[in-house]
Amino acid sequence: MAFGFLPQMPPAFGQPALFGALLLAGLLGGELVRRLLGLPRITGYVLAGVLLGPQISGLLAAGALGEARVLIDLSLGLIVFELGHRLDVHWLRRNRWLFVAAVAESAFGFGAVLATLLAFGFQPLLAASAAAIGTATSPAVVLLVAHELRAAGQVTERMLVFTAVNCVLAYVALTLLLPFLHLKHAMSWPEAALHPLYILGGSVLVGFVASLALLWLARWVGKREDRQFILLVALVVLAVGAARGLNLSVVVTLITLGMLARNFDYQHVLLPLRLWRAAVLCHFVRADGREPGVHGAAGSGGGGGGVHRRALSRQGSRHSCLRPPVGRARGQRRGADARAAADVGARSGDGAGHCRDVPRIRRRTRRRGAVGGGGARDPRPDRHSVRAEARRRGRPGRRQRVSGGAMHELDFRSSPELTLGVELELQLIQPHDLDLARDAGDLLARLGKVKLPGAVKPEITESMIELNTSIHRDHAALAAELDVMRDAVAREAGMLNLLVCGGGTHPFHSWSARRIFPTERFKHILERYGYLAKQFTVFGQHIHLGCANGDDAVYLVHMLTRYVPHFIALSAASPFYQGEDTQFQSSRLTAINAFPLAGHMPFVEDWAEFIEYFEKMRALGVVESMKDFYWDIRPKPEFGTVEIRICDTPLDVARAAQLAAYAQALAKWLLDERPLPPIRAVYLVNAFNRFEA
User: Fold this and answer.
1) pLDDT at 160 over 90
2) Could you tell me which residues are beta bridge partners of residue 422?
3) In terms of DSSP bridges, do strands 455-458 and 540-546 run parallel, antiparallel, or are they unpaired?
4) Going by DSSP bridges, is the β-strand pair 420-429/633-636 parallel, antiparallel, or unpaired?
5) How far apart are CA 364 and CA 343, in angstroms?
6) Which of 41, 419, 440, 472 lies in disulfide reach of 478, CB 3.0 to 4.6 Å?
7) How close are the terminal C-alpha atoms of the chain, in Å?
8) Of 258 and 292, which is predicted with more confidence?
9) Omega of the bond prior to 124 within 30 degrees of 0, cis?
10) d(CA 472, CA 416)
């Protein structure tokens, strides 16, 4: 009995089904190449296309490529759009040498290929055309490898700029050669001259119109990822269709769309969607395994949710104002140096295989868990001997010398009373998506060549820096110095295509994507506190007030604790955290509260008693130095100051100077009037008042 509904045997699968099987083979090939050979997955994608395509096995006929041309053009369009969106014209205007270097690199590549082909006897016109094609850099390869290795920073950003410039110049060169190719095939002069102008001008015009439509519609639909995803895909498909229908270049149309959408988006209405990742696999496992580059461009078309931008608007980020957690091998704790210093992090085998761990930090001899119970290696200090030594050290004006002439770290260095100093922790932002950048090292290297009145230092992750002012006696001088330092930092950051801003937290960054700045202390913090070190990517203002002696410092710490809620309320600038509206004006303190030594200084009556407390904590292995205390307000004996650490970094330096002036006036009144004695009861409600503020 014959059943008419059954297919003929053997079944005849259509080319789309075979193309889908090719995509699956490319995915599997990429994973095998990555896991077995440690090579980028894109190598497996290309190999799958070559092996299964018509050149070798013939399992996928050449006709499948024609049937899937629209899909291939769409994938190419998404990739080229992303590349154009990374091309920041403002950066090239600020750093003209970068553009000069990109053009020179393209010209050198063109000349080298041309000379080589001419040496092998190729005709000059064909050699020049091939050299123009060879000048282009594959945007898909660059984007995918950079993403797979989790590469970020100046090298990656400049490489993307060079790639975009290479593609644009390669297409322009090939367009200029088109008239000669047309004449060689007996076309008329008008047709030979107008054809490339039509392709170039028409493609740019379509990309321009599409970019205006994209920005207008993005503003209208709002900052929602689901809506903007559909909008962006629709505009890219529409632009691809228009280019194909008008016999224009898909490459030029989409790179124009991406570049203009980026540089005309003055109000930051576009969300940073990464659609190109879904297009890469389809793009590279095509039947012949080759990328349709500029050689196809010269022919016809046939041949953190929505909170991201809203958060920056509310938090006050301005241009001029200033992944998964690292895993551990089973049964083994990964070294802090490996996690902090690797340029590309490990992520289920996705890291760079050639990166080697720098030498590990020497482990402490004391076991971390042995907090109580003094053994032979951790004897408890004698109470009376500690107090006697503390009394001697705490006398105003007297310094205890140790070997080498260095001042003991707990000898309070007398400072001119009520002098001012400020530390500001600032965010480094990448303009293309307004996420945190990882370029602190490059920015600090540039700032090291600039003469500044204060200092700029690294902070715990490579997404932040710290401004340190010099010592001042009044608000006016402090404000003037902060202005100078802000302008210098903003200018040098602009040369690296970075933005610098204040605020206590970044609204939507992922703490797991942060990288620890490679100093011994920061790596020690990572080793001790684990993931909390990366979560410590928050930004505060620290105010230093000079004190004559340690006893005054202890008194001032206790009395200023009453005013912690005031400082929180006056400086609050962190309403968003990890992409969520916290419903608080300041959320920065939640990251600090996770540390065991956060909070407030214990109630001690004078500097001698404080030294006794410190020596006990150090003998128990809890702390090693004063830097291990993350209190809201703490004494700094090496500077001779009291440090107020509770404030969010303000949104501009004028507010930072005003907060410092308020602290100075408050401290002067407290030291001059001594309105109340320090009492232990203040700390009963300190945590509650701190939360309420």
Assistant:
1) no
2) 543
3) unpaired
4) unpaired
5) 26
6) 472
7) 84
8) 258
9) no
10) 10
Q: What is the mean pLDDT of residues 21-36?
A: 82
Q: Helix H segments across 285-416?
A: 307-315, 336-341, 383-393
* Beta bridge partner(s), residue 633: 644
Closest listed residue to residue 180, CA positions, set 199, 163, 164, 196 = 196
E-strand spans in 620-688? 630-631, 633-636, 641-648
User: What average pLDDT does the chain have?
Assistant: 77
Two tokens, residue 428: 């480094």
Q: How far apart are CA 367 and CA 369, in angstroms?
A: 5
Token pair for 671: 């030291």
Confidence band for 70, pLDDT divided at 50, 70 and 90: low
Cβ contact 573:582 at 8 Å: no
- What token pair was written down for 7? 């297919």
Partner residues linked to 424 by β-bridges: 467, 541
What are residue 647's DSSP bridge partners?
541
- Locate tokens 């995915």: which residue? 27
Residue whose C-alpha is closest to residue 426's, from 649, 137, 692:
649
Written as one string, the DSSP assignment of 573-607 is -B-EETTEE-SSSB-HHHHHHTSTTEE-----SSH
Q: Which residue has the tokens 């975009």?
A: 164
- Give the type of residue at 47: L
Sequence-ordered list of residues with C-beta below 8 angstroms from that of 247, at least 6 positions apart, any chain: 199, 300, 301, 302
How many Cα neighbours within 13 Å face the side chain of 643? 22
pTM for this structure? 0.71
